[in-house]
Design brief:
4 copies of one chain form a homotetramer. Chain A is of the alpha/beta class and about 325 residues long. Chain A has 2 domains: about 10-250, 3-Layer(aba) Sandwich (Aspartate Aminotransferase, domain 2), CATH 3.40.640; about 250-330, Aspartate Aminotransferase, domain 1, CATH 3.90.1150.10. The first copy, chain A, contains 15 helices and 10 strands. In chain A, the strands form 2 sheets. A 7-stranded mixed beta sheet of chain A has the order 1-7-6-5-4-2-3, sandwiched between helices. In chain A, strands 8-10-9 form a 3-stranded antiparallel beta sheet, with helices on one face. In chain A, helix 1 packs across helix 12 (about 235-245), helix 7 (about 115-120) runs parallel beside helix 8 (about 150-160) and helix 13 (about 250-270) packs parallel to helix 15 (about 320-330). The longest helix of chain A has 20 residues, at about 250-270. Chains in contact: A-B, A-C, A-D, B-C, B-D, C-D. The interface of B and D includes residues 97, 98, 131 and 223 of B.
Amino acid sequence: MRFFSDNAAAAHPAVIEAIAASNRLDTAYDGDEWSRRLDGAFSDLFERQVRALWVTTGTAANCLALAALCPPHGAIICHKDAHIENDEAGAPGFYASGAKLMLVEGPGAKVTPEAVEAAVGRVRKDVHQVQPKALSITNASEYGLAYSAAEVGALGDLARARGLGFHMDGARFANAIVSTGESPADVTWRAGVDALSFGFVKNGGLNAEALILFRTELADEIAIRRKRAGHLLSKGRMLAAQMLAMLDNELWLDNARAANAAARSIATAAGERLVYPVEANEIFVRVTAEEAAALRAQGFDFYDWGPGQIRLVTSWDQAGEPIERLAAAIASL
Amino acid sequence: MRFFSDNAAAAHPAVIEAIAASNRLDTAYDGDEWSRRLDGAFSDLFERQVRALWVTTGTAANCLALAALCPPHGAIICHKDAHIENDEAGAPGFYASGAKLMLVEGPGAKVTPEAVEAAVGRVRKDVHQVQPKALSITNASEYGLAYSAAEVGALGDLARARGLGFHMDGARFANAIVSTGESPADVTWRAGVDALSFGFVKNGGLNAEALILFRTELADEIAIRRKRAGHLLSKGRMLAAQMLAMLDNELWLDNARAANAAARSIATAAGERLVYPVEANEIFVRVTAEEAAALRAQGFDFYDWGPGQIRLVTSWDQAGEPIERLAAAIASL
Amino acid sequence: MRFFSDNAAAAHPAVIEAIAASNRLDTAYDGDEWSRRLDGAFSDLFERQVRALWVTTGTAANCLALAALCPPHGAIICHKDAHIENDEAGAPGFYASGAKLMLVEGPGAKVTPEAVEAAVGRVRKDVHQVQPKALSITNASEYGLAYSAAEVGALGDLARARGLGFHMDGARFANAIVSTGESPADVTWRAGVDALSFGFVKNGGLNAEALILFRTELADEIAIRRKRAGHLLSKGRMLAAQMLAMLDNELWLDNARAANAAARSIATAAGERLVYPVEANEIFVRVTAEEAAALRAQGFDFYDWGPGQIRLVTSWDQAGEPIERLAAAIASL
Amino acid sequence: MRFFSDNAAAAHPAVIEAIAASNRLDTAYDGDEWSRRLDGAFSDLFERQVRALWVTTGTAANCLALAALCPPHGAIICHKDAHIENDEAGAPGFYASGAKLMLVEGPGAKVTPEAVEAAVGRVRKDVHQVQPKALSITNASEYGLAYSAAEVGALGDLARARGLGFHMDGARFANAIVSTGESPADVTWRAGVDALSFGFVKNGGLNAEALILFRTELADEIAIRRKRAGHLLSKGRMLAAQMLAMLDNELWLDNARAANAAARSIATAAGERLVYPVEANEIFVRVTAEEAAALRAQGFDFYDWGPGQIRLVTSWDQAGEPIERLAAAIASL
């Protein structure tokens, strides 16, 4: 029973079926029927005109967006626990030709306006110091917290005032959306977000992520950068078809609701042991080394997360007995 | 009836089945059962120890290899018609941090030792001129010609003598192998090749290409670069499973044989109109604008390729009547 | 008697005096009295508002300009014999984050509108091919030819029509100006040039080159890039003082007139042996290996320049007897 | 009376004289008589064979070294207050093709083995996290503290054990050397340093810094990178001559002694107000805003350095009355 990460889960059967259904001769790259439907499908979802590009990884989506929002000599403000800082092998520096990350702190890996303001304020306005040019937040955060539309909006106002491009890493965007109940539009462009990495792989997709551009004028340049980075697949219809299957009948929301519900069950069992409120599908629990070993002995797999803490991540396909057993095991520690 | 490019064809049913069969929870990235079998499977095929990494595009395979073989301040010698020069949006310069391509000419997009020697000889050995550090050839070439093992070996000897890393872009490696009948080992590492982009997507794969490293010591660094470029997919098992399905029972050779046979049928019909000998699955035919229009009027789609020429590319799944009709149409021009 | 290159000559005494005179405590970097006078001095010379930044090499001036005019995924059209292609160790690719040079041919290393038009025309307008974004010419050219204002203007019109930034490498700008007699303004911004590398080092300067920006809005970003490239010297007053000394009393024009006059004397002696008309301070002469040896035996040093040709370059401080002797030696071959 | 920074001071007269004396025709770039003497001169100073390259800024020296010691996908460990982090406009990321800085803390901007060990220990050994590949320290530190040979040696041992290249930013190397009285050899290569940026500009030089390579095998590649970065000046003799003049008769040590002595005088006056011990030529003093204003009213110029602190920097040419007046003014606060 694996709770390492949602990115290792199986893809939803509808996704595999969509891939099979799109397996025919069509125009290469993104000229096929499915890829050409993406802008429309996501524009409907976001209640405004957007441009949507498929890629195969969140790292590619994040860094293509950041390279468009930040010049080589600029800095991207992000949380010190952000995925782009810790788990992308320096990809932002690669894609953005040497741009740097400017790290801020904040509880639960969430970025606050105060932290951004302080980071901007520390920089002298001269040619010797790298000037901040973009802001990137992760929603849900690396510690499973969701941003409200109001929180994003406060950051968006600040980004605009300080001339920062605003990117949201939504590897678990679905989990955040079902957590707050706010609309995709309210949490993103209405709150000032310029570009969103809209994750599917952790939510039942196989290998497709969407880069959603609310500043649509960035799309053509990013399409060039996507090719230049080797991310323009020949048979892109397979990626587009996945996403359309996920959007269809709100499968993406159903999947996220299932993962979040599983996480809540475990969270309830963990009670006072929780390190953070559980707002998405990640649960951080305080356990001793002996307790962790005891859980593992019962067949539960998960990562240690610093001394005295473990991380559990639930997936769209985890429900019923395994979750009940894990909840019971934690409750009985 | 589309003859634009083999990269737009459907994937072979066995590939889709393999993807579906690998769709289960497993270790993420390349820690899964299928990915861990790749080194062994390709080592068997190449009759020596190799390292094999999956990626989703030929551009990624090519440029990851080139960045490992050429420093930022070096040059990569390639044909002026090479894919890396003309169709990868400058990806070699991106991946190799500004390294440049040093172009040579040669009939049929093939590189000759004389051309390489001349290119090397033109460069002063000082800090003002970019020094050649790698050689890249395409096999089969962009004009559908296959290199013999002896031809590759002559280039390999030269590469070693001049201190050049040696890369082969094998987007149509299968077509070349069935064309010459020589072994994969003889055409690559025994002939001095350090790294091979082994294509599957144009040959019945869906989205998986292999980067084969004969200099196995390069693999760990390239694995880092792959992640840094956003090419380490979460559910890599889907990519590995594709390749294993293609290697199984020599499906990759069967597919290439089918495409090559189709091309030969058309070539026979084209006769004197052929611009190049047809050694793989690409046919370049001299036609007038009126003749091209006539072919299109009969339902055949293809690209113009310079004035008075068209390019036809056959795929693994093109045989029988459509090919016979195209052959007949060309013969009757 | 060295005729290798004007970049090895001594600096003019007035330049050394200016350095000594500026050797006092002042604001660091470019905040000093001399640096702050540059914009005004060059604006007077060019008859319009310009921004002027000092750097220490032509390579830095060229590549800072090109990186501002061409995105990482774009191409810079230049002559195949251009300094940026042949003698800057790939610096354009480094500064412009992997941008490539798109080479054209043309007599005497001059770029023609036809060549540019053809180069632009060869590029498909898609994401697979690198799109041209800038044009760079060298005036005087690498073969010592000067562009007329009309010639530059024709290129400028084309650059504007095709959306290309327009850069002039003026390592020997002074020699070109005194050659045609046209005004600096007419040959540059009035003809559509966006940025000029204005050389002093080959013309009696010690180590200061000016980057002149007619598109003044580029200056602030380039100033950042200059720092980032390690080209913002602490005691920049030494560089600014050199330039001001060169502009004072038109010393830069006097020096160029002297070098050009010396070149003309030699050219007259060479007569039919000239490979190109001598319009600046470079002379390319057809000689046999024996004749070259004979000249060297008489104490003249110079470079061979391909089979059967030599290159002679005159400097601001070469006049009188050495030039007469060289002219006589060539005449008597 | 300016105490902003030593990099704004005048150059020593002997340096200006050396420039004037080298102003003659000679081989261009670094082929001249003076440049060819550098390896020998610095090898004598460091008691072993070294390679020495001139550049014009500390940023160039630092980043050329770091790019040779750290691959694009690696990290350079340095202090959060290091010059390369705060005052070089992101040049390390530019030169090292996107490599990142990994920041550590420590009193007085000094790096400790414990801090390095902790930083290394925090990194998972996988492809997702950027692996540390180099260590860079500043001696004297940004807060004017000198490393003992033993301190450097402890870091050198750790660097070797962890596979880190080891760079020392010696913008104020002379001030550190005269402070500890230890030999240049003991403080650098005998303690494990691979490359040293040996500063002259802050110590009476005009525009020349030396990059000293104890790992001499790095020099040829760095020479290429220097050209590629536009840092190979045509008349390099002017730079080499400066350094030789500084090394002659130990002028570099005399200058540093003078600056350090001036700093000590001020430090004695500051007494309990000192933020750090004064071991070189920088003095950090606790003053109220009113006291700072009072000092400025008496004609002393300096930077505020965070709330309640000011920074004073002395130069080689500051002695006698101005120093006495400043000391008295501080003592009487």
